[in-house]
Records
---
Amino acid sequence: MQTLTENVYKLGPPGGLFDESVVLNLFPAVSLPARRLLVHRAVKHGEVVRLKPGKYCLAPEYRRNNPHPFVVAALLHWPSHISLESALAHHGLIPEAVQTVSSVTPHRSRIFSTPLGHFSFRRVPVRNPAAGVTAVTVAENCWAHVATPLRAIADLLYLRKEIRWDRGGAGFLTESMRIAEEDLHRILAKPDAEVIEGMRSGRVRAYLRNLAKEFGS
């Protein structure tokens, strides 16, 4: 076992995920070139998987548990939160299996294809990026920032610029996305005004206000 692999394994990060700051903490007296050599050797021997520059995961045989896709997403691109179809599927609102882990970020959009899966990060500008985002436990000792159902819908509406309330009302959600009307009633029983009014797009705010009128209590 390579030196880096052994030390990270002893540390036991959830899912075997770690970054270059962990390498620095494990080897504070070692120079940057020497730390890079430690990483290179571990990757070359198949003991460590490089996800992107500075972001790594132990190979399966050296992990104590498997990395959760939502935690991998946070490691790859921060700040961000799980949203769109991934969040809607997490909340049990859409029936489809989601192949790409979809996140939203206030920064530029990115896409990563890694040995652990495909990850998409889409830019959605809002007044308060934390509105409608909660910390959710996704595995033992693992949590991720996940959009609430209303925030996931708001993020999705922003990116689907062709969707307007006056061009079909809630049909996009109930027919295209196949979200049940009873679920919309539950989501909008107490609509989150911070999510609705925090969207910078007037089109999205108008859609969400009308949605709240139709399905709110």
Note: The radius of gyration is 20 Å.
---
Amino acid sequence: MGRMTQSQSRQVAIVTGASRGFGKALTAALLDRGWAVVADARRAADLKIAVTELNSAELIALPGDVADASHRVALVAAAIKAGPLRLLVNNASRLGPSPQPVLADYPPGELWAVYQTNVFAPLALIQAALPALTDNAGVIVNLTSDAAVEPYPGWGGYGSSKAALDQLSAVLAAEVSAVPVYAFDPGDMRTEMHQAAFPGEDISDRAEPESVVPALLRLLDTRPAAGRYRSADVLPSGARQ
């Protein structure tokens, strides 16, 4: 399959963590391009608000936690029912405690929850969706972070989980040549999770999620070799719309 463009017949995407932030902005952009989107979020009330704001018949909202196996089954089933599943975006993430503890004091239960959402759930969702994505020449995008490659103090839990996701993405790309797998680093954004990472600090200088979405769309349109991409490398800030 060539480029994913608006001129093609309806395509279906799964976007996790779509009630706010980057997930919501990406969902809006895909809907504008004529996609159907199966979207989820842990907080049902937030997802309901997003559905009202996006106001699209092509948006299929399923509240739930990606760490829940039955919820993942429901996401894939809804996507396959809606049409050809051609995109899976593992955007849902868990930061962990706020303020973030140093590794020496990191509660094991909290670390387990971070890895459940950021590593195990994305892989399990990929496993469930992979047959349909393979049949439909689809794409997998896993949202990562610079904390996966930089040793920032206090980011050991979240950062190490994203590093694990990066490696899963790389190995999957080597094993499944029919489906490109991208680890996409959007950079710092003005989101609720980023604010939780810096409690009490002013993050108004961070990019709005909507300004980063064009970089991911360009990645989908051009389909470079599978790998890890930073938004700034895909679409320099001066070229963003």
Note: The beta strands are 12-15, 36-41, 59-63, 85-90, 139-143, 181-185, 227-230.
---
Amino acid sequence: MDSINELSATESLSRRDREKRTREMDILKAARELFVSKGFRETTLEEIAHHAEFGKGTLYNYFASKEELFFGIIEQVIEETLAIARESVAAPGSAREKLLLYAREMIRYVKDNGELLHVLYHELHRSNAPENVSKLREIIGRANGAWEVLAGPLKKGIQESALRDLDPLQMIILFDGMLRGYCFHQFVIQGKPADDDYSSAAEIITSVFFDGIAERNDKG
């Protein structure tokens, strides 16, 4: 009987956790939409609660302030980009193919979320409160965990003598730097996706990283 009760309690707790997570995601989704349409400073907690179809009291059960919600969105964005890194590395293929997939998916993600990232970027630069700076450093540290994930295929390529014996972590920082720089300039600074065709950008970045840009002379 005790085992049955313990199982029932576990299932009940799991269900409550799922419901809690669903509410939290609904609140974050509402905040993301309103921050894009109205701006961070112009959006109120009351509006977010109404948009998520919750009472303000319910919202306070999950986020104590608008700033906490703001950083919750940043953490959510980081988790989404980490997921892209993990899924790209888990895909079949060589290191080059995995990083090409990662580049494609990241460009698509930043393009689809460019307006939100624009709001987050500009608001971060408007606020220099010590507690915010500390929180941001913590979040960035977690975001850089993607480099460890992405370095995996390069390590394997080095072990198989398919790539030069260089520090894989330093190499992936360079690769991701090119990719982030491109995405940042095209989508975040501008605040919205441009109309140009960026379908070849991932291929160009991957080619430059793996092949370089110098003309090769094979005439002996």
Note: Confidence is low (pLDDT under 50) at residues 1-11.
